[in-house]
Amino acid sequence: MSVTELLAEQPAGHPYATLPHVAEIIVGLVAFSLLVYVVYRYAWPNFVTSHDDTKKQIESGIAKAEAMEADAKAQLARNRERLAGVDGETARIRDDARADAERIGQDMDRRAREEADRVVAQGRQQVEASRSRTVSDLRAETGRRSVELARRIVEASLSDESSKAASVDRFLDELDAMGGADTGGANGSTGGSADGSGDGSGRAGTSAAFGAAGRSGPSTTSTQGNGAPS
Fold first, then answer.
1. What single DSSP character describes residue 15?
2. Engineering a disulfide at 183: which of 104, 125, 169, 195 sits with its beta carbon 3.0 to 4.6 angstroms away?
C-alpha cells in the first residue's frame, strides 16, 4: 500500500496519524547509529581480519598447489628422461652382451682349433719319435743278429758244411720271426713306415753278414790249414 492510500484512509482532522512519532524516529536513528558504531568498531575489524586470513590461506593454498603442480611436472619430465636413459642403457647393455657372447664364442672356437692342432702335432711328434725308436731298435737288433749269424757261420764253417747250412736256416727263421713281431708293433704305432725300413735294413745286414761270412770262412779255414803245418 502506498503513502497516498494511507493518507486517504486516515480520518479527517488527523492526516499523519499512521506515521511514527518524531521521538521514535530519533530513538531509532540513535539506536541504529550505535549499532553501526559497535559493529564497525568491534565486529568489522574481526570480520576483515578473518576475511584477510581466509584470503591469505586461499592464496597460499593456490600458490602451494601451483608449486606442487610445477614440481610434479618437473618430476614427470625427469622420470621421462630417466626412462629414456634406461631404455638407451638397456639397449647398450644388450648390444654389449651380444658382442661379448660373439667374442667369447670366437675365442672358444679359436682355442679349440689351437688345442686340436697342438694335440695333432703332439701326436705326430710322438708317432714320429716312436717310429724312429722302433727303426733304431730294429736296426740295432738286426745288426746284433747279423753279427751273431756271422759268428755262427764262422764257427760252423770251421766244423762242416751241413752244420753251417742248419745254422743259417735256423738264424734266418729267427730273423723272420723277430722281424714279423717287431714290424707288426711298428705298423701299429707308425702307420707302416717302419716296416720297410726295418725289413730293408735287416735284409741288408743279413746279406752283408752272409758276404762277410763267405769271405771269412775260407780264409779262416785256409789260414788254419796253412798254420797247421807250421
1. T
2. 195
